[in-house]
Amino acid sequence: MPEINGCRICNSEELHLVLDYGMMPLVNNLNDGEEPETYPLKLVLCPDCGLVQITETVPPEKLFSEYYYFSSQSQTMLEHSKKLVKELSKNLDKYSLVIEIASNDGYLLQYYDVPVLGIEPASNVAEVAIKKAIPTLVEFFSVDLANELRSQGVLADVVHAHNVLAHVADLHGFVEGMKLILKPEGLIVIEVPYLRNLIDGCEFDTVYHEHLCYFSIRPLVKLFKLHGLEIVDLQTLKIHGGSLRLYVKHETDYGNFTERADEVKDKLRELLFRLKKEGKRIVAYGAAAKGNVLLKYCGIDSEIIDYVVDSTPAKQGKYMPGLGLRIYHPEKLKEVKPDYILILAWNFADEIMEKESWFGGGFIIPNPLRIC
Ligand code: TMP
Ligand code: ZN
């Protein structure tokens, strides 16, 4: 029975014993009463990356080919899934694709009304999903399968991997595979039991051969980083004695930030200079710090903008530094009426347009540039 030589994430060979369970049978393989095979069960911590894991890897075929865990058996699980699908569906339509790895009996995918694809190696469980007309590949997920899907143009807007990461012996292959089937703006949603809850609640009985890893945030950040992925959000959940839900995306590309900033600048300058040339009067709304940065970066000053208004009494009568723009009470808009109002405090654009709804001219919002 293969025993690991090093940490399942970082390969560090120095693993510290947390709890030795002695020899254990495969506890999910219910049998007819015969003497089962047993395997060592030892929980260890990698002090380098923080991953808690067991040292033995029972071949997955022994654990998952015939499986007695049907996710739909739990009403809690169904409601939990339905709620998540409702939330994620807001950003999906009929052109989207949702892939779930370890889709079990379709307990989650059944709630989507956009195209879905399940991947589930336990044939008896997958059968249930297929009977419910949920397209399901009866296979273990791997880099090879991911490459095959990718080559067929099968790329997902959402990839679900719930309560499966802890089961996976080849963590790096699995995570690389998820990256391969994810669209550039796609979202991976992962749920894993949270190590903190296991330790705090002394839930030592949730350790068995199916669960190779016991996750906390630090090792997960490292794992995803190694594959060009990053955690963009996370939640703690009550399910399964305490879980983590991670939202993961392709790593942010900072490479073209200058080009993108300059695109905002060019578009804004083009518009304002054109309006000015047409003889339009333009004022700015909200003497916010970011407004100063925007105008400075774009090279727009009192040549283009007549004045600024802001509802903050302490700002009125002052000047925006380096721009030669004096700040007035918003009442000024009625006295010296402009044709356009450039909203610098764009974070409050809706509130400002609501407040100044009497204004007949155009509101310009700088990024993305639009006239309302
Ligand atoms: P901030 O984005 O840094 O919070 O700055 C917003 C600025 O906009 C602040 O100076 C207050 C001003 N403001 C108005 O003048 N009118 C408004 O209705 C709102 C919401 C903000
Ligand atoms: Zn490690």
Question: Any overview of this molecule?
Answer:
The strands form three sheets. Strands 6-5-4-7-8-11-10 form a seven-stranded mixed sheet. Strands 14-15-13-12-16-17-18 form a seven-stranded mixed sheet, sandwiched between helices. It folds into two domains: 60-252, 3-Layer(aba) Sandwich (Rossmann fold), CATH 3.40.50.150; 264-371, NAD(P)-binding Rossmann-like Domain (Rossmann fold), CATH 3.40.50.720. It has helices spanning 60-64, 75-89, 123-131, 143-151, 171-180, 195-200, 217-225, 257-277, 289-298, 332-335, 349-355, and strands at residues 16-25, 38-45, 52-54, 98-101, 116-119, 136-137, 156-162, 182-193, 213-214, 229-237, 243-250, 282-285, 305-309, 319-320, 325-328, 340-343, 362-366, 369-371. By secondary structure, the protein is an alpha/beta fold. The structure holds thymidine-5'-phosphate and zinc ion (ZN).
- What percent of residues are in strands? 25-35%
The unreliable regions are: none
How are strands sequenced across the largest beta sheet? 6-5-4-7-8-11-10
| Assembly level | single chain
Sum up the overall morphology in one term: elongated
Please provide the ordered H/E string of secondary-structure elements: EEEHHEEHEHEHEHEHEEHEHEEEHEHEE
Tell me the CATH superfamily of the largest domain.
Vaccinia Virus protein VP39
Profile the largest sheet.
Answer: 7 strands, mixed
Q: Compute the CA-based radius of gyration.
A: 28 Å
Number of continuous helical runs: 11
Please indicate the count of domains. 2
Task: Count every beta strand, where a strand is a DSSP E run of 2 or more residues.
Answer: 18
**Category by helix and strand content:** alpha/beta
* Mean pLDDT reading: 96
Q: Return the CATH class of the largest domain.
A: Alpha Beta
CATH topology of the largest domain: Rossmann fold
Q: Ends: how far apart? A: 67 Å
Helix content: 25-40%
Ligand inventory reads: thymidine-5'-phosphate, zinc ion
In CATH, the architecture of the largest domain is 3-Layer(aba) Sandwich
